[in-house]
Amino acid sequence: MAISLVTRSQWGARAPKGSYSPLTSTKGVKVHYTGGRVPPEIVDNHNLCVAQVRSIQNFHMDGNGWVDIGYSMIACPHKRVFVGRGPDRLPAANGSGLNSDHYAVLGLVGNAGFVKPNNDLLHGILDAIDYLRQEGGAGTEIKGHRDGFSTDCPGAALYAWVQRGAPRPGGGDPGNPPGGQIPAWPGRLFTFPPVTVGDDVKRWQQQMKKIGFELEADGAYGQRSRDVCKTFQRRVDLPDDGIVGRLTWEESFRYTL
């Protein structure tokens, strides 16, 4: 199993304040979201993921009084999987009396900002689940935090994916375009001004034309491209900054009329 793990030492985890309760097997895993705002820029900057995980640990330990972060594993939108409490240890995030039946896996999306999981985050959640099955005796169930607990967690978008059976992207997920794969983000931001020029811009413009926008696919990201971008971002509930970053790129190719 290939998994891109971020160890506790790599993300700068604090030492636990006490001993963990053991957990040798479970029915499966419950999927969570943060329940707060996650900055959209997180999809372009992995350092923000690290900062987010540290902040959550601080809140759980200092605010909730828990011995450590409450999640077993945390998946980020870069297909990286952070070790929280890890396998064989009782989580704390599922709710009182509910932690012994399921591990807790957090996806770094929230209820504002970055709210729709990208494919790499979904891959990360599934990689975390596979890891917990292999290393921690997790069962086959994949449920949302709200299953059996009064909460809106893991949010509408992530819970809809769980209800579809948590399919791995590229394996028949109806959210993907025909062919199953979203083109890889080119790794740079399209901004105006100044004009951003390139074949990657042209590819994005062609996609926007395909989904119904009037736009010349000339490879130059100017005022008209920026206006189209902002309109599209509002349509899919993204911040309308007029910048094509990783999240806007992926939503553009995921979008269907």
TrEMBL record:
Pfam families: PG_binding_1
InterPro entries noted in UniProt: Amidase/PGRP_sf (IPR036505), Amidase_domain (IPR002502), Peptidoglycan-bd-like (IPR002477), PGBD-like_sf (IPR036365), PGBDSf (IPR036366), PGRP (IPR015510), PGRP_domain_met/bac (IPR006619)
Domain Peptidoglycan recognition protein family, chain residue ranges per copy: 3-149
CDD domains with a match to the protein in the record: PGRP (cd06583)
GO BP annotations, alphabetical order: peptidoglycan catabolic process
One GO MF term attached to the UniProt entry: zinc ion binding
Superkingdom of source: Bacteria
Stored PANTHER family: PEPTIDOGLYCAN RECOGNITION PROTEIN, PEPTIDOGLYCAN-RECOGNITION PROTEIN LC-RELATED
Protein family membership: Belongs to the N-acetylmuramoyl-L-alanine amidase 2 family.
Protein name per Swiss-Prot or TrEMBL: N-acetylmuramoyl-L-alanine amidase
Lineage, highest ranks first: Bacteria, Bacillati, Actinomycetota, Actinomycetes, Streptosporangiales
